[in-house]
Write a structure and sequence with these properties.
Length: 414
């Protein structure tokens, strides 16, 4: 949905009558983001850098959890109050926002004036938010769920043979765990953590089409591929290769009590702070020749606001351009992310960054970015299953049927 052009010539003529001092104040931009952890401090430093770089635009950054942002935004847009000028959202959310007329598309002339071009960004991330030839998002990064391992423990128990090819398989998780325990290791081998992200990594390996719905509406994850993924996780738990249901996998890995830990690349800074000598690999795989990492992308978007001026839109575009052109290296080195701004990689050594393998051209097909108009409803239902299917609280068949039914009912209730 494109915003109607304002009558700039009329406004400009009226402003010409004002004294020069009226033009001194910078354009104020309200920016909401979903960065509340270690990456939040990095983002704030990047905003500060922009504000200090010029005196024409001042950005007010409000970080909040993703859940809070996604709850606040619909009411803000509906009431027309407290709408941020720009926000960062996950790319999976954009189709539904567009379908519900909650987003404005970017004006091509404004993007051009700010120097923003599709050619400057990772193609898959930029085009994923182009809907009906309108650009609704500008990507900040791509971020994936990956595998961390404790290098010191791998050295101590002579486990490096399992990672010579740069990937771990489920069979190797079992084998390296057995080898370490034979030598006296008493910790856990592998984690069951953020189940949704892990399951979607593994599902993508079995279904490269990333099918969540065949018609774009009706969910269809109650299928044999997803069932195999659930069974894989359940068997690892039952056979003693994972943390306990009430265990804290993060604390175990930070404390040197876990060999292999799956988490997002955005946790890199926290792992460094914990003092762990770590390595990073793609998601654990069924077949080392078929690697898929659940991947999302933080996108700058502008929610529908009839009161926002073109002057503010241009200020937002300049801010977005600066964040890509001037801050992408910081986003990579300090926040552990993979910037979507291509030029950033010219000054970064991919082999020196733990997450650098994700940005290599030959690995572009390993980035599994899901698209489903009802992603928010899917996410809620799929995440709710949690550990229930793992510890037998509910059968796998019932768990999958429950997810399908919950999504279907939620769609019908809209």
């Amino acid at each position: 949905m494109k915003k109607a052009k304002l009558l700039i010539p009329v406004i400009a003529a009226s402003m010409a009558l004002l004294p020069a001092t009226a033009f001194a104040a910078p354009v104020e931009i309200d920016y909401w983001s979903v960065f509340t952890g270690g990456d939040g401090a990095v983002m704030q430093s990047m905003v500060d850098k922009f504000n200090e770089s010029q005196d024409e635009v001042h950005v007010n950054h409000t970080p909040m959890t993703a859940d809070d942002l996604y709850q606040k935004i619909p009411l803000s847009v509906q009431t027309g109050s407290d709408i941020p000028d720009v926000a960062v959202v996950h790319i999976e959310r954009i189709p539904n926002f567009v379908a519900n007329d909650m987003l404005y598309s970017y004006d091509e002339d404004i993007l051009s004036e700010a120097g923003i071009s599709a050619d400057d960004y990772i193609e898959s991330a930029f085009t994923a938010s182009n809907i009906d030839d309108e650009q609704f998002g500008i990507p900040l990064d791509v971020h994936s769920y990956v595998t961390y391992y404790n290098k010191d423990l791998f050295d101590q128990y002579d486990l490096n043979e399992f990672i010579e090819d740069g990937v771990l398989t489920f069979d190797e998780i079992r084998a390296l765990g057995d080898k370490a325990r034979e030598q006296g290791f008493e910790g856990d081998v592998f984690d069951l953590g953020w189940m949704r992200a892990q399951l979607l990594c593994f599902y993508a390996q079995l279904d490269p089409e990333l099918t969540l719905s065949e018609d774009g509406v009706t969910p269809c994850i109650n299928n044999e591929n997803m069932k195999q993924v659930f069974e894989t996780m359940k068997s690892l738990y039952e056979d003693g290769y994972t943390n306990a249901k009430d265990g804290d996998a993060t604390a175990e890995f930070y404390g040197g009590e876990m060999l292999v830990w799956m988490e997002g690349i955005w946790m890199k800074a926290a792992v460094v702070d914990a003092g762990i000598n770590f390595g990073m690999l793609p998601a654990v795989a069924y077949d080392p020749a078929v690697i898929k990492n659940w991947t999302s992308s933080h996108n700058f978007v502008q929610f529908a606001d009839e009161e926002r001026t073109e002057e503010e839109d241009l200020a937002v575009a300049k801010f977005i351009k600066f964040m890509g052109e001037q801050n992408s290296e910081t986003w990579a080195t300090d926040a552990g992310q993979c910037p979507a701004y291509l030029a950033a990689w010219d000054n970064l050594d991919l082999d020196q960054l733990p997450q650098g393998f994700l940005a290599k051209p030959e690995n572009v097909d390993t980035l599994a970015i899901y698209s489903y108009d009802y992603w928010g409803l899917f996410d809620t239902a799929f995440s709710r299953v949690g550990w229930d299917f793992v510890d037998g609280t509910i059968s796998i068949d019932d768990a999958l049927a429950q997810v399908d039914a919950e999504i279907t009912d939620a769609i019908a209730a809209q």
